[in-house]
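User: Structure tokens for this complex, please. No commentary.
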Amino acid sequence: MTEVKTKPRRNDGGLTAVVPDTAPPAVKRRRKPLTFDKVSFFAVFLGLPLAIYVLFVISPFAQAFYYSMTDWTGFSPTQNFTGLENYQRIFTDDIFMKAMGNNILLVIFLPIITIILSLVLATFVTVGGSSKGQIKGLRNSSFYRVVSFFPYTIPAIAIGIMWGQIYDPSGGLLNGILTSMGLEQFKSFAWLGDKNTAMIATMFVIVWGFIGFYMVLFVAGIKGIPAELFEAARIDGAGRFRTAVSITIPLIRDNIQTAYIYMGILALDAFVYMAALNSGGGPDNSTLVMAQQLFFTAFTKGQFGLASAMGVVLAVATLIFSGLVFLVNRLTGGDKDVSL
Amino acid sequence: MSTRTANQEMKSLHFNPRKPATTPGDKVVGAVSHSALTIWSLIVILPLLWTFMSSFKTSSEIFASPFALPSQWRFDNYIRAWSEAGIGSYFLNSVIVVGSALVIVMVLGAMCAYVLARYAFPGSKAIYYLMLAGLTFPIFLAMVPLFFILKNIGLLNTLPGLIITYVGFALPFTVFFLFSFFKSLPNEITEAAALDGAGQWRTFFQVMLPMAKPGLASVAIFNFLGLWNQFLIPVAINAAGPRVLSQGLAAFAGQMGYAVDFGALFAAVTVTVVPVLIVYVIFQRQLQGSVSQGTSK
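Assistant:
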């Protein structure tokens, strides 16, 4: 702690030189002797949160990397260092590779479907109003916004259980609706029990849970765009579609990027939904995800080293995904033309 | 805000503010928008209504027809779910864990964000990135070592262990969000407080914290939802401890294969969903605002 407080005196100049725009103006404060007030302030304000954070978040992450290279079972006091053997085992394990394939499927489809649908709905809400006079949104749109946000307030496990019942072959809502519409072939169709539909049905549940949240996020983003821009586009003769594509989307690009990364990270996890809908991995492991396999390996089989290696693979996949999204956004001209 | 007032002025200038004429195109767009949004709203509401309705039915009624209203509005499903299935005690545990974790993380997170945003010292940037790293890494990676850390300090399968873990994992989001908020607060106020003789502690608690209220409210809402919905952490490190709601719900649904009591399951889901939904509807204005809340005050 003392180190933190004595250093600024020596390094003040160097620090501002390295990161000029990030150092807040407070850096210019007069140099006063360290008082008890200040010492206790730093110790509690920075030390306490950091201690908890390092102990319960950072150190487990760091340890996981080490454990992933051991044959630890959790019960033996010592563990042998096995290098990359666990990783070899993972990548030759058919079930884990299947799970990874399912995660990749989720990462490809979930963000894009969710974002497109929520963007469409957000556009309806914001530009559905009159094309004359003041730029305004659709009338009574706050009702839609409130309702759309409902799923986000429901615990994921409750969403999973609820949809598990809706998909129920005999007493579920979905088959009830379909048969009452005359589609008798769905009378006792097991949506989650058929390997062709289990994944699609599961994806629908996740999309259902998140469209509303991203719709609200995008609506907020669109409302943050100055109305003059829309008016100018209208005077220049741009229709609604053209406005949405050429004005709205480029200007809320950062929101879209954030949404894409969040949805992607969720798709790489997806544990809760899978556990609630098909806890065993689904027919032919068609909805098994890496996180489920990790959980099973660790807490049922007790192979903690192997499970940690799976965790590392999951983390690396997440980082690669986030990096890719940033890269694509940068390459396609993000950051540059987004200036308000 | 400013555009609206400008427009109102414009209107008052014209003595006869006429309503802009609606073109046929507008009507079509309006109709399409309304129908698309209505269909979506139905897709959201119907499953919820169906769950609510089914929570009053017996198992045989549920299987007889998914649509029929319950023959009578009976509450024994709720009573069974609340006491026999233990949803009542799980609910209480959730309130205790989420409530304590929320208070602690808001205080600690605000303090940490404040120091990082308003004081320059070597390593502040590094700490900030350390926080960011915690946001990007999947929680899954941490579960196995976390299990043993808690086991070693004797907090495995206890509510305090769960609380402190929740605090740790909610901290990066809290700091990240409040960082930009504290950064946007004007510097003059701190200086004024210092001139008036307020120490560091007093400046924070009596000047800065009250000013950050809107930001704090938004973060608190999101933290509450995130922690209330948390599933993985309790399942991993509290498997044998006093269950929280999400965990208990999953366990209850897991038993369903053996003892078919679907009415009670629907009641349990309803009990989980409805309180948060009601709170949301009451506070939805603040929440909708907080999604959009950036640096604007």
